[in-house]
Every structure is written in C-alpha cells, then in structure tokens.
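Notes from the pairing session

We agreed to fold both candidates in a single pass and log them together. This is the raw record for the first candidate, unedited. Please don't reformat it; downstream parsing expects exactly this layout.

Candidate A
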Amino acid sequence: MPIASYDWQSETASPDIVRLATAEQDRAGRVTNMKGVLLHSEPAFRLFSAVLPLKESLRATFGARAVDVFSLAISEDSHCLLCSLYFRRALKAHGVDPDAYVPTEDEAALIEIGHRIAAEPAAHRAPPPAAITALRDKHGAETVVALVAYGSAMLATNRLNTTLGIPIDDDLMPAPEVAAADAA
C-alpha cells in the first residue's frame, strides 16, 4: 500500500511542514504527489528539494529542453512511470514529440550519460562514456560533475517514486480521449 501524501492542510500539521508545503506551492503552483509524500519527513523533503538550484544551473548551460531530455533518459531507463510521464510532458511543452525527435549534439551526449547513470551496476565496470570527455572539453569539469550529480539525484528520485509506489499525479495521466484512441 503506497504512503499517502502528508495532509499539510490539516489542523494537526506541523507549522514547519506547512511552511515547506506553502513555499513549494508558491514555487511550483502545487504540491505534487511525490512532494506530498516527502512532507512526512522534513529532512527528506529538503534533500530532494536541494537539487533544484543544481538543475537550474544546468538549464543555464544546456537549456531546459536538454535537461528534460537527460532527465527523461534516466527516468525511462530506471522504469519510473511517474517521472517518465513528467518529463515526456515537459518535452511536449517544449514542442518536442518524445517519441520522434532528433537530439542536438549536447542532448545526444546527455542521453548517453543518462543511460550510464541509470544502468545496472555491472555496466559501471566499463570506462566512463565518451560523452563525459566531450562535454568536459566543451563545458568544463565543473559542469560535468554538476551534470552527473544532478543525474544521480534524478535516479534517486526515480527510485523514491517506484519504491514507495507514489501515485501518478492526475495531471500526468493521458486525457480520456487520448487513452481511448490509444486503446483502439
């Protein structure tokens, strides 16, 4: 049985948790199912929220689309339906069909690195992907370290969602007419 979102709007909710949830709602416009579950543990919520400045720094370097491509590669390889749907929707918001697009040179490198991050442990015995060297030469070691750190946090996010069975947010579910067309 999945863990339900913390009821941060109840009268018994901790004031600290209410402040965190309110700040999240102000930042993102809502509290997702994942963030709602994380509210059960303030340190866990803070840990998973701490990655946002790192993500923003990568967006400044690679662009939002490329970071979403990278995140989708990790999410799909780690079989996290919730995260995969989230990043597929993000790509669609960029005007990209997640099933039919040509990645840029940087995006192709990010996909290669994302596959490595989400790979089974045995794959990590091989040398690092060539994309690491290519991106280091183009963007610097600091950027590559930030990228792999963010990707590792993305993998942890995927594992959190799948391990706890966090329900898919309603807005990530396909519209009924899309689901009906897909089933036909």
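Candidate B (folded immediately after A)
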Amino acid sequence: MDIEENVFQYYEGRACSAQWLAFNRGMAAELSAGLPPEDIRQLFFRIGQRVAEALPVTPCETLADLQSQFNAHWHGIDWGFSSLREEADCVAITHACSPIAMAFGPEATGWSTGFFEGVYQAWFDAQRMPPSLRVMALEGGVPTGPVVELRLGRTSP
C-alpha cells in the first residue's frame, strides 16, 4: 500500500464540498463543450487575478516572506499551500492540495491551471516584478492530482 497515494486519494475525495461537486462538474462540462480550452484557461486566469485582488499581498523582501503570505491566504480559504524555490532561470512554484482538481474533475485539468497562473501572476506583479516575467504552468499544463507546477520566468522576446 502506497501511503502517499492513499493520502492524496483521501484528500481529493474530501476537497470539494458535496453540495458543490455536481454543480462544479456540470459547469466544467458546459465550459468544455462551449469554449476552446485556451479561452477557458484565459477565463480562469482572470478569475485567478480577481481572487488575488481579494487576497492582496504586501511587498516582501524575501521569497520566504512572500511564500508565507501566499500560504496564509491559501490556509485562510482552505486551498492547500505553495512552495517557492529559486532556480537558475526562474522561480519554481509548487501548489499542492487545492480543491480545484476535485471540484472540476480530471477533464478540466488542462485549463484549470489558468487559475493558478492568474493568482500567482497578480501576486508577483504586486511585488513590482518586471513585465517580462510571467507565471506559466509547466509544459503540458496538467496537474498531477492535487499538485500544480508553475514557473515565474522570462518570456520569449
């Protein structure tokens, strides 16, 4: 028995309130049937920006301070947690235990990462980052269960 896998399965089964699960899945199915995936991803990006506006972060001196602010917000709304890691050419962002994968179902994972791109982009913009730095989900853009991997890095000219 793989404990880690069982922990994630247990969490995923409880990550979205039963009263909202059918509604969210139905909405995801309608969005997928009516709009191209990139349009839905952009919609979720904008929703993420609005969430970030509702949960503002103040300017921080260190990446650890910024991560603490992010996690205080995520904890406050029961949306998991994030980890920030400085790499040679980017800041790696790992978001774990969000209810979004469970709420919208596995078919939505290709476009639901737009939400996280929007939230983190707005929060990094609040740190006065250069406009050439963008938050992007890793290639493929498909979360592995309740984990989403993103990067803050330079965009191609």
